[in-house]
């Protein structure tokens, strides 16, 4: 079958494309923004990518068009699909119909940490010789690909609450029919499609409704998640938490004796010591991610000690605090930041790891929610652990970043071009500095341009 995917370079659609190729289909696709790492993955499996949405790409007509949720009415290719009466569907529906039926689906949801937690869970199952299939919105270092069919009944999927398609406004995860669900956390996000947190919680309760009575919901021990479960729950729930400052242990699964930088922690389940994890990751957010992955893995038979051993060899995920290079003692990282909480968690974790070393944050507020200014009041304070913040003011954003610099607790400035951002970072960085580039997009290739400029400056 010839499948053409509109919006193929999105993390979900690109991963789906790889599954379709593995199943033997001929796959082509198009996108408005083509950039690594997804474009590289697609090219490696022989998928032809067209830049833009000229209707000519639909000639001759494919057997099926899968339409990504970033496309809407008015898009030339979408209009051509409808006008010509071509067969079409959504990515989430096609994933369900062709890959998830009859499998034990482990779905990882929540505002933050989905990609990392799903990657951890897939690696735990792999280390336990379960050979899972997976579809993840990133590239786990242990696998080198974001999706595979697998050779067992188990399938790990990153379960996104974003809407499915222009013709299906339900969250994507309602299609997945999981037996094991992780709800990592809940905050207001995706302001372009959700009015408030309550409307997001409603979608999460739709997900809860799809879990069978014999299933398991691994839930963060926090109020917003608890409010979802209070709407009605028909499955076992295991809560994930940590030891509070006054010694109170929160949750069925609890992280205790946590190192200051999150590089090690002990695991308790129902008050019993189970394992200790010593790994290369940092930050309280990753401790929580790892704990949730261990809880979900136990539901399919992996003991906590085996999960802990797997996590110690976990190699992280591309674009999640990925160190891209080091020049003259200056390290450059890439981080997929899309929300103030994610920015804060990343910088807190790095600060705990590097101590007094200089941290320079280059941030592109690219997500729809940040571009709309919804989290404007939280962005400045999210960078408090950096020594300097460079904010990129992209074209077309409806509000000015000047308010952030005016109210920042650390030195901050705005740059309006990639070139000026690189120049500012070069002026600020010296040996021992850590430059963290944060964006949920390609950011104009600033990462490699920055490394190239450092190499040129220091004659490497």
Secondary structure: elements and pairs:
Layout: E1 2-6, H1 11-22, E2 26-31, H2 38-44, E3 48-51, E4 64-67, H3 76-84, E5 88-90, H4 91-100, E6 104-109, H5 114-127, E7 133-135, E8 147-148, E9 154-158, E10 163-165, E11 168-171, E12 180-183, H6 197-209, E13 216-220, H7 223-229, E14 236-242, E15 253-256, E16 264-269, E17 272-278, H8 284-299, H9 304-311, E18 322-327, E19 330-335, H10 340-354, E20 359-363, H11 368-371, H12 376-382, E21 388-392, H13 402-406, E22 412-415, H14 418-428, E23 434-438, H15 446-457
Helix pairs in contact: 1-2, 5-8, 5-9, 6-7, 8-9, 10-12, 14-15
Describe the structure.
Helix 6 links the parallel strand 12 (180-183) and strand 13 (216-220). Helix 1 runs parallel beside helix 2 (38-44). The longest helix has 16 residues, at 284-299. The chain is built from 15 helices and 23 strands. With 460 residues, the protein is of the alpha/beta class. The strands form 4 sheets. The chain has a 10-stranded mixed beta sheet with strand order 8-7-9-6-12-13-14-15-16-17, with helices on both faces. Strands 18-19-23-20-21-22 form a 6-stranded mixed beta sheet, with helices on both faces. A 5-stranded parallel beta sheet has the order 3-2-1-4-5, sandwiched between helices. Helix content is 33%, strand content 24%. The N and C termini lie far apart (49 Å).
